[in-house]
Amino acid sequence: MKAVVAERIWRDGSFEPGLAVVVDGTTIADIVPQGSFGTDVEVEDWGRVAIVPGTVNAHGHAFQSLLRGFAADRPFPSWRDEVLYPFSERLDGDAVYTGALFAFAESLLAGATTTVDFFYLNDGDNENAGRVVRAAQEIGIGLVLARTFYDEDAPTSAPKRYREDPVDAAARCRDLHARHAADPLIDVHPAPHSLHAASPETIRMALDLARDLDVPCHLHLAEASYERDQVVERYLTTPVRLLEREGLLDERLVAIHAVWLDEGEMDLLAGHDVGVVHCPGANAFLGDGIAPVPELLRRGVRVALGPDGGCANDRQSVFDEMRMASLAAKARLVDGGALDAPTAFDMGTRAGADLLRQPVGVLEAGRRADLVALDLDDLSLHPLPMLERNVVHSMQATAVKRVMVAGEVVVEDGCLTRIAMDEIRRRVTETTSGWKRP
Ligand SMILES: [Zn+2]
Predict the structure, then answer these.
(1) Distance 328 CA to ligand 1 centre (A)
(2) Spatial distance between the Cα atoms of 113 and 127, rounded to a whole number of angstroms
(3) C-alpha dist (Å) from residue 140 to 134, 188, 315, 350
């Protein structure tokens, strides 16, 4: 056992001095006053830092980091049809692995210790998903692989490699879950892509599997206005009402985006305890709008945060999404008090862990020892009496000094400890060499 001593430690919504985090292997054993340890505890003094729980990225697509910049500054149809679809056809297994290393490196360096990869370059098997898992295991980040179900006959122009028979997708998702059941840092959840790419029947199969595996089920929902219009045209009702009609609103459901909702749909999400992942950076970047987060929170909806894919944001920092969530709500409601820093911080930590059902996101006994040390000498955190607010609104990435996942330090002074940053740079350069912006 070791005791990590720091100048301040995040506890119950504020920073407290004089505490230490006692770590037993991969887990937090206790939070105790400094100096109260037994002789069997090795003391590790982290110095002038504030320790917060590792942040939780509840939605992303790791391979998209390779497409960053190529897809920027376009309306959504051009983003998807000229870059996302054709460029994602270029990625072989090695490139999928490189994209995952790249995205996970940036996530860890930004203080995210758990990340979701909503993965759909499946090619009809689990080989590529396995490469994403390997990247996470090598770099040392906690991963939820949300394995996509994308219908063969979905009325989109998406590449064939995304598509599968839903019965096959369910069997493969079950296999992948079983294959990694023994690794506490890897979880696998079913993820029907969206209402434009998965039929209600497919979503039902995915939800049934989620119940069977006792895990959440991820679904893109009401992201863009055109998507809402398509659902109304095809099913003669709105996205959330369609899910209600089909009996698919469920407390296991994790609805990604939830931008285009009316009041009645918000009530339905709350009534069925559906979770929401807010992606304010990506929703702004793609011109999709701003989700009604304060209205959802007021109804008791659980809301977490996700940066989304690396070519749709274009950053991979949950701390940045906390700030974006706060600013977007203030701007939309013309109210500087619309969503405060402590609420945004909670969304990016505890709420994300709760939604994903991972034992992280809070510094307390029994949770995984995922710690982020913030450098109290970094000017962006000053004045220090306002640290709780400054972590969300003013902190720069330079403040993230050390990151621990499951008791192991995986980032030290802005560098990964397990994989050379040069190797990732080399791989990304090689993979994208010769690519041109269409
Ligand atoms: Zn997404």
Answers:
(1) 19
(2) 24
(3) 10, 17, 20, 20
How far from 268 is each of 256, 326, 406, CA to CA, in Å? 16, 24, 37
Distance (angstroms) between ligand 1 centre and the Cα of 223 equals 9
- What is the Å distance from ligand 1's center to 194 Cα? 9
Handedness of CA 144, 192, 68, 285 (dihedral sign): negative
Q: Where in the chain is the domain with CATH 2.30.40.10?
A: 2-53+365-421
Q: Class of the 55-356 domain?
A: alpha beta
Give residue 60 CA to ligand 1 midpoint distance, Å.
6
Residues of the chain with CATH 3.20.20.140: 55-356
Whether pTM > 0.70 for this model: the answer is: yes
Q: 2-53+365-421: which CATH architecture?
A: Roll (2.30)
Ranges of the chain whose pLDDT falls below 50: none
**Which pLDDT value is given to residue 370?**
98
Ligand 1 midpoint to CA 220 (Å): 6
Which amino acid makes up residue 332? R
